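Title: Prediction job returns without error message
Component: structure pipeline
Severity: low
Priority: P3
Assignee: unassigned

Description:
Job completed but the reporter wants confirmation the result is attached to the right record. Sequence as submitted:
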Amino acid sequence: MNSSHGTRIALGTAMMTVFVGIVALDLFLDTDVGLGCTGVLIGTVGLLEFYDITGKKGFDPFRLSGIVGGILVFITCWSEARSSGSISLNPSLLFAIVCWLFLLQGFTRGLENIVENISITVFGILYVFFFLSFAMAIRHLPGGNGLIMLFGIILIAKCTDIGAYFVGKEFGSKKIFPTISPNKTLEGLIGGLTTGMLVAVVWNLVPQIKILPLVWAVPFGLLIGVVSVGGDLAESMLKRDAGVKDSGNLIPSFGGVLDVMDCVLASLPVGYYFLLFYGWNA
């Protein structure tokens, strides 16, 4: 094992341990404040990274307004999840954000690049903060096992990513997305999806942390795995378009927060709606 692999494993384990600690503390205190504050922090850094990526293309989104608007979207969704266990994008809030951005554009930048500036600012809010807010909706699904379900979805998504990385490194030869992500291989994809499904099955064999009946575990693991790969590819497309390798350099051997969270961002809403489709009530 080379030093890069060792660093990824060590830092990945450390990040997962910190997250488990936050979740455990919330569970012990019967609250969601730790998880919510973690979401705000991750969303803020991730959105700044997204705006930096778009800046490499010459765009100039409203960074501060985007962060404030994103936090408001997250808190609004968090509040709704607390009260009803559901989630939706408040149209009045989104309308207010867009109106504010038009006013800000008009008074500070005139008529130059209106569509680009406002569209990228709003898209970043939706891509990072709105997708991230589904963590709070999963946390508050009926039955009192929301934290366990949330951790299961994140674990499946990240294990799919980890499995794809290591299998691809060791056995990958057939490139499947050379123009988007040159390192993605068919062998890595199969290894990642297999890992995700195995994690879903093993997770659901433990009665205390069981999410779904075993018959649903394989399709659930496969779905989360496929979506997590799609989330990773979507971020790769953004970076490829901007000509950057990583979204940031905050986390050694990983890159930025978006590089760590890309597969999770896509998996959270899909996992939430899968559980609603299944008819989760326990």
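Comment from assignee: result matches the submitted record. The CA atoms of residues 135 and 268 lie 6 Å apart.
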